[in-house]
Inverse folding.
């Protein structure tokens, strides 16, 4: 990508409201998660029963839970756990789905039919059902969440890659590349993937947000991250019995999930507008 094109994208980004708000919210969550790797106000494994269910104060910025644990520290570590699970799961799904989609678009015929029927089969197993099956065999845990969310994302990326690649294969420069003697793998790497990269980036951002939601849902049901490691979904699950006398224990992680997912969705929406030349021309 040329320097002038990068400068153009940067200037458009600064003037795109959704992108700016999305980047701010996403950066805040990412920063909180990264800082938790080196520092938290209190240990998330530290139980302090005499100070349980305290309100916000200078000592505990967001109060304490029913075990006396610092809520803000748990929120920080939970942010990192949610993002880590989602990133690995989306990377796993894209790492398998994108090559499958490119293969289906390039080969067509029985290869395409086989790949797409595999996608249909994979769609029959949503992340929750996959997590339940894995938990029944191996027990609940973070790895099962990663596998469940990742497997669900394979057909998502395969479909978006195939659909986008098919439109590129109709272009004249692909015919010229074949005439020049380039093989299908080289064409896919040098011409197809670079031209659909923006679509995949936007889709990856959206799936990242959905991955955080899925991780929170699995943890809420007890199928994801296990104690003593905190997660936003687990914090919601533990707070549901205390809604009437300590509602902040549910509001705080719930608000964190909402703002993070909102930020990523706004970021994806902004990236779509900025990277898609057709949308730029319409505006």
């Amino acid at each position: 990508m040329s320097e002038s094109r990068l400068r153009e994208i940067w200037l458009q980004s600064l003037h795109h409201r959704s992108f700016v708000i999305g980047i701010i919210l996403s950066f805040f969550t990412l920063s909180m998660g990264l800082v938790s790797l080196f520092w938290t106000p209190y240990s998330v494994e530290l139980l302090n029963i005499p100070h349980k269910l305290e309100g916000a104060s200078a000592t505990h910025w967001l109060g304490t839970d029913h075990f006396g644990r610092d809520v803000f520290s748990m929120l920080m570590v939970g942010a990192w756990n949610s993002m880590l699970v989602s990133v690995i799961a989306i990377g796993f799904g894209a790492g398998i789905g994108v090559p499958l989609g490119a293969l289906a678009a390039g080969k067509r015929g029985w290869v395409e039919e086989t790949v797409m029927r595999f996608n249909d089969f994979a769609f029959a197993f949503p992340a929750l059902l996959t997590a339940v099956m894995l938990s029944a065999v191996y027990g609940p845990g973070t790895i099962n969440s990663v596998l469940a969310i990742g497997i669900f994302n394979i057909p998502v990326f395969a479909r978006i890659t195939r659909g986008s690649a098919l439109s590129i294969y109709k272009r004249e420069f692909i015919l010229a590349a074949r005439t020049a003697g380039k093989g299908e793998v080289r064409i896919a790497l040098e011409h197809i993937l670079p031209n659909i990269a923006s679509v995949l980036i936007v889709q990856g951002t959206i799936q990242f947000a959905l991955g955080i939601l899925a991780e929170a849902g699995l943890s809420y049901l007890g199928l994801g991250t296990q104690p003593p490691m905190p997660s936003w979904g687990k914090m919601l699950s533990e707070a549901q019995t205390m809604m009437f006398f300590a509602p902040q224990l549910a509001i705080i992680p719930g608000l964190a999930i909402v703002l993070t997912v909102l930020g990523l969705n706004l970021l994806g929406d902004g990236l779509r507008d900025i990277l898609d030349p057709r949308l730029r021309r319409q505006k």
Q: What stands out?
A: The first helix runs from residue 3 to 14. The chain has one domain: 3-282.
